[in-house]
Structure formats: structure tokens, C-alpha cells
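Final report, closing paragraph on structural work. Over the funding period we assembled a curated collection of sequence-structure pairs, and we close with a single example.
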Amino acid sequence: MIPLSLQDAALVTNGRLTGTNDPSQLITGPLVFDSRDITVGSLFCCLKGRSVDGHTFAAQAIAEGAVAVLADQPVEGPAIVVPNVLLAMGRIAAHVAVSYPGTVIGVTGSAGKTSTKDLLTSILELDGPTVATPRSFNNEIGFPVTVSRVEPDSRYLLLEMGARGLGHIDSLCDIACPTISTVLGVGSAHIGEFGSRDVIADAKAEIVRALPVHGTAVLNGDDALVAAMANETDANVITFGFGDDCDVRAEQVGIQLDGRPHFTLVLGGTRRRIDLRVHGRHNVLNALAAAATATAAGIPADRIAQGLRKAEISSGGRMEVTTRSDGVTIINDAFNASPESVLAALSALSDIAGATRRKVAVLGEMAELGDEAEAWHARVAEQVVQVRPDVVIGIGAGHMNRMLATMEQAGLTTTKAEADVLTEEISRVLVPGDVVLVKGANALGLEAVARVLSSSTAR
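Its predicted structure, as stored:
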């Protein structure tokens, strides 16, 4: 963190400093809201959750090295008492961002934010110290935590920005405004909350509208709703995609025998062969987004290619591929399940299995799709029929029942399982050499199932 005194932290949050005789003591570590993440010099933020109140961990935080706690009620030990802890976190992060001299990059989109962030981090780190959003800290809680982790010598601050409604990205940009804004695509994730893809596009465009004139918008040129955002800014625009008119594009896309994609990166009039270490054809587009964003940051093409070739998806639950001792390969893509990401995961299952290995698809019902839920579940069912897994295991009720019926009519072997016996049901149907895709909404907890399967051995 860029050091900030307790006195100044109290000032920027309109808070009251209590329990200390040294207001000049510096906060040198980041904002922390999870007691397991406390570090020496950090500021522990006492957020109130559904079942846990952070205030109960205030004394523990101080004992483990936190300089003070941010609280909305009196506590023992050094504290900054504020009316609203979450708002205060944002104000501290905004103060840090104003003091930060490096490049701030924002990434948003309906799908692929975290994977693109991981790919881009691999490039940026070759160019200088980089702080990037951990895991999926892309909302009003995690975002200020990430900003607070930036150091005076950090060259890049890479921020993933999520939205579940209009104004959400605006509020994040108020904390730390990017000078490079990347928009990956406008899909159907959370469409039940937004109402339409046009509203989703309007929400994602907030990251472009926030750009300064000297900034750069990095836009998916193949997505009409994203490409149109070029009209919403006076900043420079760089496009990426597969179209001939995109500034950064891919040609000759193919799949290696292990299911990893390769392509020719066309950038700045040059062509470079890129063999990705990550799985999934959809990650070619994410790699293009990373390359275009790095170009906007002024990173040379050779360094961009080097970063892409060594990049891995470090955030769990996203195309996390593990092969067990019995030859069973688990594709853990269970962190979330937007319709577009489910279609992409099914394609990856087919690519990794190839023509010789059995395919097992473990699919959970998709959430937050509103009036489009029935149509999207039907489309996914059609894709499953095309991929033709040897076994399909479904989790869910209404829409899943209809999906499984469609698959059964097409001659697929299907079964339905409850979450508490899912691991056993999957293990029952597996034979050595199978490829298993685990994909579903985060609320279903399928990521934990995938991890248990990955660590298991042959029966």
C-alpha cells in the first residue's frame, strides 16, 4: 500500500480516531476484511455479513499485526470509527489511487474478465511490477482492497470490474479511474437482473465513458454492442477480434492434441505464432484482449507474445484441467456458468477428449437469466446433443429436467443427481481415461466437487 497515516485515513473517511496515542502511525499494508488475510501494517475492515460480524475479530486483527481497524462502532484498540465501513474503504482506496503514479487498467465484460486479467498479468509482469485483482475481487468490497495493495513502485494496477446493475462500474471508476479500459463482450450473464443486453451494454460502457481524453478504450471489434462504445468516448480506440478490420486479431486458429489452442497473432503489421498453455478456444479471444490492452500500455509486440506463451489461468475454477493417475481428466470450469461460458466449456470438453476418449458432462442449472432462461437452457441442451457426451449428469430442477429430456430423446445417457451425492454419482460412472467437465452456477458449489474429483485416484 502507498503509506497513509491513521490521522489522514480518519480525515479522508470523515472518521474518528480512537484507541491510539500515535495518529502519525502509518498504514503500510492493504485493506483487509477477512481475518485470515491480516498482515503486519494492514487496516482491518469490520464488515458485517449475514452470519459473521467483523467487529468480533477486531482484537484478533490488532494482535496479528493490523495497525488499526475500520469500524462503525466502538471497539478495543486502535480504530477509525466511521458511519459506514464499506464507504470508508472506498474513500481510502480513492485516496491511494490519486497518489498512485502508474498506469491504471480496467477490464470488464459479461464473461472472461478473470481469465483475461490472468493472461494480461503475465504480459504486464514482464514489463514491470504489477498489482492485479486477486481471484474475482471485482465488486464494491473487493475492488478497494485491490486498489489498496498498490505500491509506490508498481508500474501497473490491473482492475477487474464487475456489474450487476447500472451505475456499479461508475462507482468503481470513482474510486480508481482507468486510463486504459477494456471491454470483452456483452453477453447474457445476469440478464435477469439487467433486463436486456442493451442495458448490460449501457452498464459496461460506463468504463469507457470514464476514460480521460488521453486514455485508450480497448474494444471487442466482433461484438457490435461493444464496438459501438467507440462513439461514447473521445479517447483513443484499439479493437481486437477475428475480423479483418480489428487492430489486433487472430488468424489460423487451431487446437493441439491436448486441447490447447494456438493461433497467429496479428499485431502492428507483424505475425507471431502463439501456443497457449491454457485450454479452451474461447481463450484465444481473451488472449487477443490481453494483447490489445498491453499494446495500449505501450508494451512491445515481442514481449506481448512472450507473456502470452507462458501465461496460465491462476484463478481457480476456470478451465482448470487436471489429469489423475488413472488417466481421468477433470475440467474444473465451475466458478460460474453464464450461457456463453457453458457453450465454450462444452466445446473445450470436445476438444480435450478428441475422438478417442469418453466424455462426461456434469452440468448445473444456469441462474439469473430471467425471461431468457428457458431459451438459453434449450440452446445449451442442443449444444450438448452436438457434443454427444457418453454420460450427462444434471443438477437442478425445472429447466434441467427439460434439458435432460431433450438429451434423452437424442439418445444420450443421462442421470440426475443431488448435490450431496454428486461426487459419488460421478465417480460411479467414470472409467480410466475419461474426460469430465464440471460446470454450473457458483451457488451450486460444483467447484468443490471438481476439486475432490481431481484429487481422487482410481477406484
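The chain has 17 helices and 22 strands. The mean pLDDT is 94. We thank the funder for supporting this effort.
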